[in-house]
Structures are given as structure tokens and as C-alpha cells.
Amino acid sequence: MNKIFDYSAIASGIILLLLSVLTFCDVFGRRFLNSPVTGTIELVEIGMALVAFLAMPRAFFLNANVSADFINNLNLGRFKTYLIILKFILMIIIMSLMAYATTKTSIKFMGNERVTLDLELYFYPFYFISSLGMWLSVLAIIVWFIKALTETTTKLRDI
């Protein structure tokens, strides 16, 4: 399971690297050759969304999201279990709804064949990749929850 989330994060990093190369080529071409790369803005916009959604599963799995560390460092006992459950419920609801809506939008875009303005690329492949990243995030949230809950209950039993 960890490998899947790692591969998703690696894909995110590769896309980010390619976007930076594309941006460099666009700026270089615009400045020195008076010929920018067509569609750079579209590709960067779409690519940044892919970067974000493909990097999220690993962040959820490792619980590396932005959080209040002072709460994590306190010895809260049983209350920490309730915080983990509340966090799980909020994250799973939000990510499930986002993944569902994005998947539904992907199917709609596939049906009406909407394309980008400059390059005339179909939207639906990018939406499907984003929705895949979101569904992986849902899976990562579930795996994180099970792992965090077992660690917390084990610590409570040891005390």
C-alpha cells in the first residue's frame, strides 16, 4: 500500500519537474527567441492540479498534513482517540465528496468532449487522473485511520 502512495508522489514530482522545464522553455523562448511555447499557461494550470492531487495520498498516509503540533504532543489519553475519529470523519467525508464529484465531472466531460482553448486537449483525462489521486487519498485516509487508531489504543492499554 505504501508503494502505491509513493508512486503517486513520484508521479507528482515528475510532473512538477516537467512543468518547471516547460516554464523555463517558455520564458527563454519568449525573451530570446521571441517565440513562446504555445499552451504553457494551460498545461501549467492543469499540471499543478495534477501535482496537488497526486501528492495528497502520501501526505494523508503519513499524516504529514498541516496540523497543530501542540495538540499532538499533549498527553490527552482517551480524548486523543476521539480527536482521531473526528479528524477521520471530516477528512473522509470531504475527500469522498470531492473524489465523487470529480469522477462525475470527468464522465460528463468525456461525453461532451470539452477541450482547452489553445491546445484543444480534452479535459477528461486530466480530471480522471485527478479523481484517481483523490480516490487514492480516500484509501490513504482509511489506512491512516486504522494505523493511528491501533497505535493510540495500544498506547492506552500500555498505560
Please characterize this protein's 3D structure.
The structure is a single chain. This protein is mostly helical. It is built from 5 helices and no strands.
Encode the helix/strand succession as letters: HHHHH
The secondary-structure class comes to mainly alpha
The level of helicity is over 70%
Content of β-strand = under 5%
Shape field:
elongated
Note the main sheet: none
The total of beta strands comes to: 0
Calculate Rg over CA atoms: 20 Å
Q: Which ranges are low-confidence, i.e. pLDDT below 50, for 5 or more consecutive residues?
A: none
Question: Helix count?
Answer: 5
What is this entry, summarized?
This protein is mainly α. Helices cover 81% and strands 0% of the residues.
Which structural traits does this protein have?
mainly alpha
Architecture blueprint of SSEs:
Blueprint: H1 2-32, H2 40-62, H3 69-73, H4 78-112, H5 124-158
